[in-house]
Specification:
By secondary structure, the protein is of the alpha/beta class. It is built from 15 helices and 23 strands. Strands 2, 3, 4, 5, 6, 7 and 8 form a seven-stranded mixed sheet that branches. Helix 1 links the parallel strand 3 and strand 4. The two termini are about 30 Å apart. The structure holds S-adenosyl-L-homocysteine and FE3-S4 cluster.
């Protein structure tokens, strides 16, 4: 299945369980990556202590918060359009205050207050604990802003309030920020330097989720394989840590093992892996524990060594193939997905062919594919001309999307005639008579509901498929229930 992300469809308003005594109404919506959705749950938690319950109705809100994405220009345009909508609503509800959170807040800072009259509050991804103070300023009639990036903040001490949850799957954030400095990427500027969260607080969150009936977690970070806990602080300062801190440090493979052992029936996923940081002990840990799902999202961005270098990716095409070969050797049924960018500056037809041939080699289960979008402040923007014409970027994107569709079709067909274990997540979008869930490889399956319910692990016999979905029939509960 190919997945070209349309940011405009990602906005989702979030609803919070009502806390008694709370009288103010918060409307919060999120755009962009899973980390933003996860962060909004932290913000909702902080604000529930400040007298706010959430509402799904924008018109009723005392406070509107939008958690924003800067990854591509289109993502930012989507948020600007939402601000226009808030503007229209403010005419009916003049007391409504509007705040911008997340990556656009961090990137644009005070410019937001200057450019968008509707905005009263600007808060960067590391400053959510300051919201109570900032809101006080807003209540007193002043605009408020905090975009300070932190060396330590991981929000490990805040119990997120699960918003719009299916009660079955949840995100657990384990690292923040990224040190990789890929030349196209705005994330290191908007989310700051990399730091890891205390494993103890991660395990406590996982245990708490299990107690509440959750069956699957996804450990989240920009670069999860780089996870390293040595008592707090930035990853880049690890060298300065004491001997004892170094000796007792916890890396990602160890964290995975801790999670897998803490809840042996909980399905465990993680995202995102970076090829240069992924080590074989992670793959071996996956092999050791049945409850760690055999699925790796392993973005590569390009199949051309020259472009990989210009992107400051710290791996070559050969390194990547070696990693893929090792994954397939250790975990033969592991699904692999990718992120790919077409039309990075100077990309030639030959580079593009290298991307297609890399995809042929790996035969990914699915992928997220994008046309290059120049981002202000990145090294690529400062040093390179965005010289691949838009129509060429689009044509190359179509070619990789089409190739991915063929590979995805091939991958889903492999399940035909097999019985797969599915965790039921929700009703199928296309039919109220069918459930929808995923197998360990993260491929979606739909099947008649019968007597099964959300949260059940079921065995599904696969009778048919599209390039994105397995279609089948439940043949009983799986042993995991
Ligand atoms: N490591 C992160 C990556 C975040 S960005 C993670 O957790 O997934 C997600 C994807 O967006 C990247 O892998 C890349 O393929 C794409 N992307 C990032 N910057 C881009 C840009 N300037 N133009 C087009 N696509 C971009
Ligand atoms: Fe961005 Fe590269 Fe980090 S894509 S989030 S700088 S690994």
């Amino acid at each position: 299945m190919e997945k070209t992300i349309d940011e405009s469809k990602q906005g989702q308003s979030l609803v919070l369980d009502k806390k008694e005594g709370n009288t103010r109404k918060l409307f919060i919506e999120s755009y962009g990556c899973a980390m933003n959705f996860s962060d909004s749950e932290i913000v909702a938690s902080i604000l529930s202590e400040q007298g706010f319950n959430t509402t799904q109705h924008l018109e009723d809100a005392d406070l509107v918060l939008v958690n924003t994405c800067s990854i591509r220009d289109k993502a930012e345009q989507t948020v600007r359009k939402r601000l226009e909508k808030y503007n229209a609503v403010k005419k009916i509800n003049p007391k409504m205050k509007v705040g911008v959170l997340g990556c656009m807040a961090e990137r644009l800072k005070t410019k937001f207050l200057e450019e968008e009259k509707i905005v009263d509050l600007v808060v960067g991804p590391d400053a959510y604990k300051d919201l109570p103070n900032l809101l006080q300023e807003v209540d007193e009639g002043r605009d408020a802003i905090n975009v300070i990036l932190s060396k330590e903040e991981t929000y490990g001490d805040i119990a997120p309030v699960r918003l719009n949850s299916n009660g079955v799957t949840a995100f657990v954030s384990i690292t923040r920020g990224c040190d990789n400095m890929c030349t196209f990427c705005v994330v290191p500027f908007t989310r700051g330097r990399e730091r890891s969260r205390d494993p103890q607080s991660i395990i406590e969150e996982v245990n708490d989720l299990w107690r509440k009936g959750y069956k699957e977690i996804t450990l989240l970070g920009q670069n999860v394989d780089s996870y390293l806990w040595y008592g707090g602080g930035l990853k880049k300062d690890f060298e300065k840590a004491s001997d004892i801190q170094k000796a007792t440090a916890v890396n990602f493979a160890q964290l995975l093992e801790l999670c897998a052992k803490a809840q042996p029936k909980m399905r465990i996923r993680f995202s995102t892996s970076n090829p240069q940081d992924m080590t074989l002990d992670v793959v071996e840990t996956m092999a050791k524990f049945d409850n760690i799902c055999n699925y790796i999202h392993l973005p590569v961005q390009s199949g051309s060594d020259r472009i990989l270098k210009a992107m400051n990716r710290q791996h070559t095409r050969e390194d990547y193939f070696e990693l893929i070969d090792n994954i397939k050797r250790i975990l033969p049924d592991c699904a692999i997905s990718h992120d790919m960018i077409t039309g990075f500056p100077t990309e030639t037809e030959e580079d593009h062919q290298d991307t297609l041939s890399l995809m042929e080699y790996v035969k990914y289960d699915f992928g997220y594919m994008f046309a290059y979008s120049e981002r202000p402040g990145t090294l690529a923007e400062r040093k390179m001309e965005d010289d691949v014409p838009e129509d060429v970027k689009k044509r190359r994107l179509t070619e990789i999307v089409n190739l991915q569709r063929q590979h995805s079709q091939h991958c889903t067909e492999k399940f035909l005639g097999q019985t797969v274990e599915i965790l039921i997540e929700k009703e199928s979008k296309k039919s109220s008579e069918h459930w929808s869930g995923r197998n360990a490889q993260s491929t979606v399956a739909v099947f008649p509901k019968e007597h099964y319910k959300v949260g059940d692990f079921v065995k599904v016999y696969v009778e048919d498929c599209t390039s994105a979905t397995l279609i089948g029939k439940a043949v009983g509960y799986s042993d995991n229930n």
